[in-house]
UniProtKB/TrEMBL annotation:
Protein name: Purine nucleoside phosphorylase
Cellular component GO terms held in the UniProt record: cytoplasm
Catalytic activity: a purine 2'-deoxy-D-ribonucleoside + phosphate = a purine nucleobase + 2-deoxy-alpha-D-ribose 1-phosphate
Family annotation (CDD domains): PNP-EcPNPII_like
Family in the record: Belongs to the PNP/MTAP phosphorylase family.
Classification via PANTHER family: METHYLTHIOADENOSINE/PURINE NUCLEOSIDE PHOSPHORYLASE, PURINE NUCLEOSIDE PHOSPHORYLASE-RELATED
Amino acid sequence: MRTPDGYDEAHAAAAVLAQLTGAERHDALVVLGSGWGPAAEAFGESQASFAMTELPGFHAPVAEGHRGEVRSVEVGDHRVLLYLGRTHLYEGHGPAVVAHPVRTAAAAGVRLAVLTNANGSLRDDVALGEALLISDHLNLAQLSGEGSPLQGPRFVDLTDAWSPRLRAIARDEQPGLVEGVYALLRGPHYETWAEAGWLRRIGADLVGMSTVCEAIAAREWDVELAGLSTVTAIEGAPSGIDPAEVVAVAETTAGRLGPLLVRLVQRGLDER
């Protein structure tokens, strides 16, 4: 696995992670976004569990539905990291801070990551609570200059950022799983009707405020990537969007999707 130079903070945090978990390396990472915390129970007993802030450079999540916890679990013969929560661009720390937890995982040996989140759907053929596979993304945070954690001549190919192999495993495990293009906007405000219409026209299926900076960081380190995004709101609906409902819908769905995450991680590692 390629290990980019210049990320001393990630390597330092990975060293602390090894001390806190008793594991010299981890094989996979699962980031549990808004409301996805209940999915962690499907991974069984933790070998170690602690607050994110015990790791250097990590910030406590501020969004509802993010627990701010790190767990180290065993999946088959593999050691897997669970992040119960994340930092978002709208918190104002910048994209490098948002990407730091993923870089730390990569420095700890992770070679496969599953990123989860909640979204507003731009499609009328998916229902609230349905999870979609992320097939590609639109990094619209770049319009404000905050869309990338990369600085300098770090030319990362994102052509197949979202692994076709892992998507095929996910569809095999859950037939009928729909794929979609995820659009990143900085937030924290939700979109207007006009903005939702524009996003549809440029090819977005889902819109949210996370995940893409993490994905870029993962691909820089050659970490294979999959994403699952729960529909928690319908963009442009006359009723508007309630942040509390977003989390509630995701939490209701997360317990059901936990076993899928476990199977995706295990097969993704076993079949490499």
